[in-house]
Design brief:
Elements lengths: L1 E5 L9 E7 L6 E2 L4 E6 L4 E5 L4 E6 L6 E3 L3 E6 L31 H9 L18 H17 L44 H16 L2 E9 L1 H18 L6 H14 L6 E3 L2 E3 L6 E3 L1 E3 L2 E3 L2 E2 L7 H17 L4 H4 L4 E5 L18 E5 L2 E8 L2 E15 L5 H16 L2 H5 L2
Parallel strand pairs: 12-16, 16-17
Antiparallel strand pairs: 1-8, 2-4, 2-7, 3-6, 4-5, 6-8, 9-19, 10-11, 12-15, 13-14, 17-19, 18-19
Helix pairs in contact: 5-6, 5-8
Length: 419
């Protein structure tokens, strides 16, 4: 019995997708719910799993091909059926592999292409596929390992901080990440790599924001000592009571939401000639992933406590690293917070996330001399930036909104008293 394998039903906002990786080849046995193929859309990677046990009979849409919602991409047969590989599944790579190793016929087109492009010895690459077969992930991991090894002797090891904002008294050295599949072995080489759909969509939206919005940015600075002291005093008790670490992001989310209640235009959006005021507060938190910038949404953030906010952000961070964010996680949003401080950014001008009319940028905490009651005091300070659409938000309103956040962060009691 044959079963058609189709692309998922895409949401209305997603026109099509691209076949990213086939994890099985024609003739491979598969189990029910086993991953067959990844389909990349503008926002997320969708996984298609086997509906039942059987054998993958045909691959109709190969890696790199565009697919529409519910389009046929393959055929699954019951076990014992005669399987013939489809021509599209065995499309040869443009360049032959450097050497013919046992099992080479079982490699996917993406594997052969990577091996040929980087002139790799496949016998040195450990395979994790069925029967030790090489997968695309195996080759990419091997290439990344070579790149890491090339820089390990001269580059310091950097430990990632689990806190949302890092406090540093001096700049930490950094190592530039090498994109997967890109490694240079000679002088003046070039690699042409197509943009992922997510990267292309991000680029499109950023250009759209700059082209269509009257975007301005206002700045302020905030003394982080009050919430740093609060966090120091209560972080252990908080973690014991709620099972979540107390970070800084929850304070800013709460402050942003309480300030949005005072300034509804900052939580609004523009739709043609209409202004849409939102009676809810869905705050997007920008997260960096291997695939690019994604913005999962904290829905009804005004109803969330500190622990719930911290837990949801941690959950989204893990999902982003694993490529498990869903379309629902990233759909909507009335306001966005971006934290460049985790990467060491001292000051920046964040770009709007259309159709939203404002975005808050957080930055690195840095000790600076400040004048307090006529005395010079060293305080941990952070620059804040609010980019806004001047078509809807006046400068006075934008400045007052940012001042409101500053006052709440510098006096956290205001958050509890809703002042």
């Amino acid at each position: 019995m044959s079963t058609e394998i189709k692309a998922p039903q895409f949401p209305e906002a997603v026109a099509d997708g691209t076949i990213a990786t086939w994890h099985k080849r024609p003739g491979d046995r598969v189990s029910r719910e086993e991953l067959l193929v990844d389909i990349e859309t503008d926002k997320v990677v969708l996984e298609v799993v086997a509906p039942h046990d059987g054998v993958l009979a045909r691959v109709i849409k190969s890696e790199g091909e565009t697919v529409l919602s519910q389009e046929l991409i393959g055929v699954l047969e019951a076990e014992g059926a005669v399987v013939e590989a489809a021509p599209t599944a065995a499309k040869p790579a443009e360049k032959p592999a450097p050497s013919a190793e046992p099992g080479e016929d079982a490699w996917g087109p993406a594997v052969r292409k990577l091996i040929a492009e980087h002139n790799l010895d496949p016998s040195k690459i450990p395979g994790t596929g069925k029967g030790g077969r090489l997968t695309k992930e195996d080759v990419v991991a091997y290439i990344d390992g070579l790149a890491s090894g090339a820089t390990a002797a001269s580059a310091p090891v950097i430990a990632a901080s689990s806190a949302p904002v890092a406090v540093a008294t001096k700049a930490a050295p950094s190592v530039a990440a090498t994109p997967a599949g890109v490694m240079f072995t000679g002088d003046r080489e070039e690699k042409r790599v197509p943009m992922t759909r997510l990267r292309a969509r991000v680029a499109e939206r950023l250009v759209e924001a700059q082209r269509t919005a009257a975007m301005l940015t206002t700045f302020n600075e905030v003394n982080m000592k009050p919430i740093m002291d609060m966090r120091k005093n209560y972080k252990d008790v908080f973690e014991k009571a709620h099972g979540q670490r107390l970070g800084f992001m929850s304070f800013f989310v709460k402050a942003a939401v309480e300030s949005l209640k005072k300034f509804p235009s900052v939580n609004a959006s523009i739709d043609g000639n209409d202004i849409v005021y939102h009676g809810f507060y869905d705050v997007g938190v920008a997260v960096s992933s291997d695939r690019g910038l994604v913005v999962p949404i904290l829905r009804n953030a005004d109803r969330m406590g500190f622990a719930e906010i911290e837990g949801k952000i941690a959950e989204y961070g893990d999902k982003a690293k694993q490529g498990k964010l869903s379309l629902e996680d990233m759909t909507g949003g009335t306001f966005t917070i971006s934290n460049g401080g985790v990467f060491g950014s001292l000051l920046s001008t964040p770009i709007l996330n259309p159709p939203q009319t404002a975005i808050l940028g957080m930055h690195k905490i840095q000790d600076r001399p400040m004048a307090v009651n006529g005395q010079v005091v060293i305080l941990p300070m952070m620059y804040l930036a609010l980019s806004y659409d001047h078509r809807l938000i006046d400068g006075k309103e934008a400045v007052q909104y940012l001042v409101s956040i500053k006052e709440m962060v510098e006096d956290p009691a205001r958050l509890l008293l809703e002042l």
